[in-house]
Each structure stands twice: as C-alpha cells, then as structure tokens.
C-alpha cells in the first residue's frame, strides 16, 4: 500500500531524454533561503554548475537550521528527502555549513545512493572532526582574522583595542573565541572587548563613541543578547553608519552593508570551488582522492566610500588590495590617450596667439553679460514674484509679502510657516507637487520645478509656477531650500484657449501678437507637450504589445512576430511550444487571484531563466504561455528543450512564505511540418497541449495529424452537448446498492446516459470530461441531482420507503461558491429528506483542493447528507488526511474487487474495510460480479455492495418493477 501511494505521490520528475540521462546534484543548505551567506554559496554553486558543458540537473533543499535547530526538523527533512528522491539517482551531494554535512554523512547511504559529498562553509575544526572521510572532499572555511588585523595595523599603527562583534549562538560563540585566540597569537599587545553580552541597540551606541586607537571586527551575527533575530544586512549597515572607527568584517557579504573591508571569506568563491570539485567527481574522479581546498576563498578588499568616510588615502592600503565602489577615473583608464592629447596640444601652441584676439573679444562679451545679469537681478527684485525659503533643520517656511497679497491671507492665519500651506494646495495637484519636491531633495533632479494651484482666501484657485534649489552641506545633508513662485493663472487660461480650437487662436491673433513673449513661452510648452505625447504613444505601444502582469510580449506581439518569421524564413525551421499550467484554476480558487497572479509572474521569470537565448517568450492569456524557438536543428533539439521546460517547472516556486509545486502541459508544433501560417501553428500547438493534459499532465506532446481528427471530434461532442438538456437527450439509469447484512436494497446510484440524435449513444467516459473542460458540467450536474432526488421522492411516495439515492459530483461543481446552497435548494424543491441523499466525491478531487472542498461539504454532512469517498485506494490520500475528511462512506474501487483472488489484493481489500470501520465509516464495494466476490465481502463485514452480480443499471421506468420482482423472489 505505502509503495503504491508513494509511486502515485512522487512520479518521475522529468521525461527521460534519449541516450544517457543527465546527472543529478543535490545541494543541501544548512540555513534558510534569503540568509546572505547561504545565498552567496548557492549563487556560486549554481553559476559554476549551470555554466558547465554538460550541466547536471540541480536539486536544492534548505534545512533552515538557524531558525529551527530541532530533531523534529531533522525528522521532517529525512522524510521529505526519502520520498522526494525515491526515484531520482543522486550522483553528488554538495553541502553548505556543518548541519547539512552532518545530515548528508548520516543518511547518504540510506536514502541518497551513497553519493560522494562535497562540503562548503565548514571550518578546519569541523573538517578534522569528520570521523569517516570516505568519498568526501570539499572547501574549508578558514577563519583567519590575522591578515585583517595586520592590514588594519598597517593602515593605523596606533590601534590598541579590538571590539569583537558576535552572537551567543553555538556557531557564534565558537567563531568569536576562534577569532580572539588567533589575534592574540600575534602578540601585538591588543586588548579584546567582546560585545556578545549587549543588545544590538547597546552595541550601536557603544561603537559610536570609540576612540581612534580602536577598530570593530564583526563576525557573523544572527541574534542579539536578548534572543531577538537580527537581519544581518540591516544591522551591519546601521553599525557601519554609527561607528566612529572602521568596522572590519570576516565575510564579504557584508560589503556594501557598512563593511570597511579586510581579508574577507567569500561565500560565492567557496560555492564556485565546491561546484568545481563536484564537476570533477561527475567526470569520474573519486572524492577522497581530491585534496580539501583550504586557501582559495579569501578576498583582500576595501570599500572606497568607507575609506573616504574615515579620510584614509588609497596609498595606505596593503599592496594588491581590491577596492570596490571606486569612482571612475578618466586619467587612469585612458592614460595613454591623455598623454597623446597633451602631445597634440603642444603642436597646437602656435595657434594660441591667434586665439588671444578672441579672448579679448570674449572678455568684452563677458562684461556685457555681467551688466545684463545685473539688469536681470533688478528686474527679478522689482517683479511681483513670490520668494520662498525653508530652513531644513527646523522645517520652518518663509513666504515674501507678494504671496500674502496674491492669496489674501494674513501672516500666520493658516499656520503656513509650519506646513499649513499644503492644506490649500489643490487636491489634484498635491501628489505631483510632493513627488517633484521629493525627487529634487533626493538628488534625482538638478532643480525643483512644479506648477500647482493654491486656494485663496476668497475660495478661488490661483496657479503658481514654483522653482527652487536645495543647498547641501559638505556631508550631503540639507541646509536650506529656497526659490520663487510666479502667478501663472493668466498663462494657464491661455493654455486652455490654445486647446479649444485653431479658430479661437485666429480670432485672438491680434491679442496674442501684443503678448509675443508669452506666445513664445506657450510655444515652448507645446513642444514640450509634443515630446510628452510621443513618450505616451511609446508607452501605449508597449502596453499594446506586452502583457501588463508579466511584462512578456502578448498575443498580438506573438502573432506579428510569428507571421514575420514565416514570411522572412520560407525555408527555415522553428518550433512553437504551447505551455499551460496544470490545475491553475484550483490554485486561483483556493489561494486567491492575487496569489495566482504572483505565480504567473514567477512562471514568466522561470521561462526566461530556462531560455538558451534563441527563444522568444509570450504570455498568450490566462495561465497559457507560448515559446517560439527559431533556427531549430532537428527533432532532438526540440525534445531536449521540451524536457528542460518540464524539468524546470518541477522545481518549487517560492511565493511569500510558501513553496508551491506545479507542473505544466506542453503542446509542440513544428514549422513548416505542422503549419505554414501563424494561425495554423497556434491551433495545432494548442491541440497538442490538450492531448498532453489528457495524457496525465506534467508532460509534453508533439502534434500529429491524427490529433486534429481527435480535436474535431471533441468539438463536435461539445457542440451537441450544449443542447442536450434543452433537447431532452439526457436520461438517468439507477444501479442498486444492497446491504450485505440483511440482503435488502439500501438504495440506488444515479448514472447519466446520453442518446444524441446525431451521435447516437455517447459514453459518459467521453462526454463527462469534455463537459468539465467547458464547464457544461455545472448545469448538467444540477440537472442530474434534481432529477435523481425527484425520482427517489416519487419512488418513496409509491410505497418504496427508506431507499437512498447516490449522486456523483464533479470538482467543477464543488468549486462553485453556491454549491452547498444549490444542493439544499434542490432538496427543498423536490421534497426529499437530506438523510436519503448521498453525494459521491472522488478521492483525487479532495486532494486537489482539500480545505476549500471540506469547508463546503461539512455543513451538508451536518444536515444529514451522506458523503461517499469514491474510488478509494486509487488516489493518493494519506490516513492523516482521511481522518479530516467530512465523509460517511468509503467506496472500494472495482479494481480491488476484480483481483481479490490473489492473496495480496484480498488482504488489501480486507484492510480497507477494517480501516473504514475503525474510523466509524460505512464501506461499499463496487463492481461485484461473482458469488465468490460476494462471499469474501460478507466475510470481511463490508456494509454494502453494487455491481452486475446484483443488477446492471436499470432505466428509470423499470426500477419499481425490478424492486417488486426482487421482493417477490
């Protein structure tokens, strides 16, 4: 039983490629995704492995040991890996940090094919403590602060105190002790002050007042002395900003987060080095024959911004040091070019004498310009412009008298000095004014410019054009923000007139001639608006050809690009992949549309990650994506890419705090074999995609001509099915269910039949699936429920009391918000008591949307309606889920009954009956066809049976006579 359920739960995660399958590498991280050290190692591993010629398949798992260091965590991880990699051959294991190495050593022989282990991020002590180094190698995380201290002493020989920052975790304490012991071995007379007993706030406060003979050395830091979890990047940045002395670090992920520098351990280099060892092992070398790498993961690096902050010149750094964030230097970059230009200037000295004449001319022009500037200043002072000013230290505003004259307020009347002026800004203009102001203050514009309306004391709005500039201190802080405001209400009126019509422009020509200066200004504004209009048109074109949610090109872009490719490459080769996310509508229904939209965005990003550079990706609509692979070189390449897509989407998606597993169904159409037009290729790829879904989802199908016939037949069935209820083509037959204890009839299961005047009798196995895909199952399902309940009520009215009716329910019906209300309404309309109705739900439906469906069925069960779990044993539910289901009956699938003559299946069927009874459930056996099967089920105390041994499905008109005949017999 367990083996069967495991096989169903964890199918093969990828379609095997032709020839040798790719090798598999399991990357096991000790800590969580998002932890900087872990992410750096992971980036280095994936970058090296994916860049290899024969790149292996990468599987990644996180132990999250920092946040959950418990045996329960280890037990759950053990169960997860055991089940998840049951059918995957792991060729190598890469572990990061000690917890992952310990887990891999303990369980690799049991659940991971005894694969070789390559460790990363383990210090020398941890490596020495490995009891059995068989088939193990890796990269040592050699924590050596001595080089960092030597570099610090070279920069500042007066250092006497070292403040060491580490936390009180097991790894933090050991790292802190190791660092202080190694520095002490230098015998430099340095004093060590550990800060692990302080909270993060106390540490920041202490380092802000350190003397110049001190430095801060920060190791790892995950929680402070109060046990509070601290985000490393945030704390490191705050520490660097607050410290009065340089903050040296041990690891390079602190760079750009307040780290001054030092001899830093690089997680990314460690990850790349361990991945290189893994590739050598995958190529045939043995792990225990490869020496452990101990000296290749160090960077001697400093942050240029921090050097500037503490006034340390570059020439004081140790020779060969790396400097990051260093500004671009034209001379150093183009030194040869600069020297060449200087030589060219020497040749041109002869022309300088000629230019002296023009220098004198420029001086005369400059004198005239100064006179002009004086005139401009006098004119500005003499104008009616408003002068405003803000003291950025107190945020007190000042406005000149012109502002009060224009608006009619008295000074202090609206508390304008403390920001009250914002209350009179027009609501439609306030947001833009604030954005433009913030943009300038943040340094993203050279000056502040905005136009907005202010409400005068009379209630009228006056348009102002405001300009200004902020004055900054040497350290980049704000000192003063000042500028001017001009009443442009008249100009705005003219703008409105310009927009009315060209005829109005002609009628006011004489007036505009008198205002030539203003017309020129308006013309400049029109030119500016034209530029804005052009930018807007470009934006709308982008929106027309790109999907708003994912940013990928949309259906229109696909149609044009595919048509252009066909026209330009009549003899070319291409493949079209039509990709659909399996069960996406259930994710939307259960997790919400916002969650579904985030998943679609992640799916688009995953497609781009899997691209080889020749692909174009499109979002076709809903949960459908299309990939155009150009210049295809044979069928094998198409299949390889399809398998990489299926494999790529088997990796989980991280959404918020959830890890979501999905699969995709892919239909493939080749150009020109499967179509010579965009419409034909899209149609055939879509048909192949539907065929992939019918094949079991999570796979791909290449289009074949026979699929068109199948698709056409499906469309014909759907067309006629739409009118089946209206044309009275549907009917019900009823198969009896018998109580094995008393031999009496318990009730009947309603089975739908369709007799089409065009298609004849159509099997339910064919049309029910089609009805679910096109949602016709909703009206059909309600029709079946209503007709079956009415029939049973009429049968009871004829004297056949106590009989029950069992009706099958589709997952599409169950996902409707009003499903429970619909069932209760049918019972009320037909007059059937709830205890005589049983709803049959297949096991797989529950597992697809467990919580949503359970919440709808529980109220129905409370009303007395029976809930039967159909086809039990063929699905993949666990006993823990079974206890939580709102069911009253288990129905053993016919496949178990057909083969009870074998000991294993007989024992399995008997176990299902026992499980059901132990859980307080009734058990019904389906497909009973022989006396021997009946005898076995009676011995196992199975409650009810149905099958051809009792009776075939009976037409509605014959049910009463069949009951009478059985009673007589």
TrEMBL record:
Keyword Transmembrane helix set for record: yes
SMART domains attached to this UniProt entry: EAL, GGDEF, PAC, PAS
Pfam families recorded: ABC_sub_bind (PF04392), EAL (PF00563), GGDEF (PF00990), PAS_3 (PF08447)
Domain PAC: 448-500
All copies of domain EAL, residue ranges: 714-967
Keywords, sorted A to Z: Coiled coil, Membrane, Transmembrane, Transmembrane helix
Family annotation (InterPro entries): ABC_transpt-TYRBP-like (IPR007487), Biofilm_reg_signaling (IPR052155), Cyt_B5_heme-BS (IPR018506), EAL_dom (IPR001633), EAL_sf (IPR035919), GGDEF_dom (IPR000160), Nucleotide_cyclase (IPR029787), PAC (IPR001610)
Transmembrane segments: 337-359
Keyword Metal-binding annotated: no
PROSITE patterns associated with the record: CYTOCHROME_B5_1, EAL, GGDEF, PAC, PAS
Coiled-coil ranges (or none): 495-529
Chain ranges of the GGDEF domain: 572-705
PAS domain span: 372-444
Protein name: PAS domain S-box-containing protein/diguanylate cyclase (GGDEF) domain-containing protein
Biological classification of the source: Bacteria, Bacillati, Bacillota, Bacilli, Bacillales
């Amino acid at each position: 039983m367990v083996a069967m359920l495991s096989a169903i739960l964890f199918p093969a995660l990828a379609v095997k490629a032709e020839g040798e399958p790719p090798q598999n590498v399991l990357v096991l991280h000790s800590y969580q995704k998002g932890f900087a050290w872990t992410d750096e190692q992971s980036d280095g591993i994936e970058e090296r492995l994916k860049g290899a010629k024969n790149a292996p398949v990468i599987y990644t798992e996180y132990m999250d040991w920092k946040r959950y260091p418990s045996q329960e965590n280890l037990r759950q991880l053990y169960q997860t890996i055991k089940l998840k990699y049951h059918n995957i051959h792991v060729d190598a294991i890469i572990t990061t940090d000690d917890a992952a190495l310990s887990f891999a050593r303990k369980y690799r022989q049991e659940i991971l094919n005894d694969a070789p282990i390559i460790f990363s991020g383990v210090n020398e002590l941890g490596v020495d403590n490995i009891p059995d180094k068989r088939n193990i190698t890796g990269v040592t995380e050699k924590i050596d602060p001595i080089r960092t201290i030597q570099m610090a002493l070279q920069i500042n020989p007066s250092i006497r105190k070292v403040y060491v920052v580490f936390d009180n975790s097991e790894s933090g304490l050991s790292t802190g002790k190791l660092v202080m012991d190694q520095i002490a071995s230098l015998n430099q007379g340095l004093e060590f002050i550990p800060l692990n007993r302080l909270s993060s706030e106390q540490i920041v406060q202490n380092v802000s007042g350190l003397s110049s003979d001190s430095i801060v050395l920060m190791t790892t830091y995950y929680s402070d002395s109060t046990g509070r979890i601290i985000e490393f990047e945030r704390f490191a940045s705050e520490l660097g900003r607050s410290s009065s002395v340089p903050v040296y670090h041990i690891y390079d992920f602190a760079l750009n987060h307040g780290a001054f520098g030092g001899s830093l351990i690089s997680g990314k280099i460690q990850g790349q080095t361990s991945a290189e060892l893994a590739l050598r092992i995958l190529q045939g070398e043995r792990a225990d024959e490869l020496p452990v790498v101990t000296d290749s993961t160090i960077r001697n690096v400093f942050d240029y911004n921090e050097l500037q902050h503490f006034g340390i010149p570059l020439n004081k750094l140790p020779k060969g040091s790396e400097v990051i964030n260093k500004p671009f230097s034209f001379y150093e970059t183009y030194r040869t070019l600069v020297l060449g230009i200087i030589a060219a200037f020497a040749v041109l000295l002869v022309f300088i004498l000629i230019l002296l004449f023009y220098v004198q001319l420029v001086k005369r022009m400059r004198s005239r310009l100064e006179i002009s500037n004086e005139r401009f200043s006098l004119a500005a002072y003499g104008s009616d412009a408003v002068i405003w000013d803000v003291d950025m230290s107190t945020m007190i505003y000042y406005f000149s008298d012109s502002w009060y004259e224009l608006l009619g307020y008295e000074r202090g009347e609206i508390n304008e000095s403390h920001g009250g002026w914002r209350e009179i800004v027009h609501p439609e203009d306030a947001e833009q004014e604030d954005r433009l102001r913030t943009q300038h203050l943040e340094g993203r514009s050279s000056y502040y410019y905005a136009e907005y309306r202010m409400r005068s004391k009379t209630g009228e709005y006056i348009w102002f054009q405001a300009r200004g500039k902020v004055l900054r201190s040497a350290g980049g802080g704000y000192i003063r923000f000042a500028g001017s405001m001009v009443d442009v209400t008249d100009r705005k009126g003219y703008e409105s007139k310009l927009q009315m019509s060209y005829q109005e422009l002609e009628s006011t020509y004489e007036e505009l001639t008198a205002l030539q200066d203003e017309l020129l200004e308006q013309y400049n504004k029109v030119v500016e608006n034209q530029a804005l209009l052009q930018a807007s048109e470009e934006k709308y074109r982008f929106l027309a050809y790109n999907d708003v949610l994912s940013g990928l090109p949309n259906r229109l872009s696909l149609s044009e690009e595919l048509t252009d490719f066909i026209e330009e490459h009549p003899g070319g080769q291409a493949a079209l992949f039509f990709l659909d996310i399996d069960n996406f509508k259930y994710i939307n229904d259960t997790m919400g549309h916002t969650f579904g939209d985030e998943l679609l965005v992640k799916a688009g990003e995953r497609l781009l990650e899997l691209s080889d550079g020749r692909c174009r990706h499109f979002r076709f609509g809903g949960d459908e994506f299309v990939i155009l692979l150009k210049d295809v070189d044979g069928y094998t390449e198409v299949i390889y890419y399809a398998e990489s897509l299926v494999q790529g989407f088997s990796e989980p998606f991280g959404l918020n705090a959830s890890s979501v597993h999905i699969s995709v169904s892919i239909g493939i159409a080749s150009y020109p074999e499967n179509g010579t037009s965009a419409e034909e290729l899209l149609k055939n790829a879509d048909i192949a995609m539907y065929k992939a879904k019918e094949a079991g989802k999570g796979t791909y199908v290449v289009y074949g001509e026979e699929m068109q016939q199948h698709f056409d037949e499906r469309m014909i069935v759907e067309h006629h099915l739409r009118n089946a209820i209206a044309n009275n083509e549907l009917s019900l037959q009823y198969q009896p269910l018998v109580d094995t204890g008393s031999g009496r009839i318990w009730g009947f299961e309603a089975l739908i039949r369709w007799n089409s005047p065009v298609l004849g009798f159509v099997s339910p196995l064919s049309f029910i699936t089609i009805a679910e895909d096109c949602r016709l199952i909703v009206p059909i399902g309600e029709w079946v429920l209503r007709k079956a309940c009415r029939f049973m009520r009429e049968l009871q009215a004829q004297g056949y009391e106590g009989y029950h009716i069992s009706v099958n329910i589709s997952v599409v019906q169950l996902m409707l918000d009003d499903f429970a209300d619909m069932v209760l309404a049918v019972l009320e309309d037909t007059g059937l008591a709830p205890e005589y109705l049983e709803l049959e739900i297949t096991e797989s439906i529950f597992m697809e949307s467990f919580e949503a469906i359970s919440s709808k069925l529980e109220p129905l069960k409370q009303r007395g309606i029976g809930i039967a779990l159909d086809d039990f044993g063929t699905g993949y539910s666990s006993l823990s889920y079974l206890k939580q289901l709102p069911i009253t009956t288990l129905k053993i699938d016919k496949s178990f009954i057909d083969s009870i003559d074998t000991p294993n299946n007989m024992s399995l069927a008997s176990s299902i009956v026992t499980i059901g009874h132990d859980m307080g459930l009734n058990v019904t056996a389906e497909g009973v066809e022989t006396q021997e099967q009946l005898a076995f089920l009676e011995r196992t105390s199975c409650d009810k049976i149905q099958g051809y041994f009792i009776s075939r499905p009976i037409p509605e008109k014959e049910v009463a006579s069949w009951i009478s005949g059985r009673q007589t017999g």
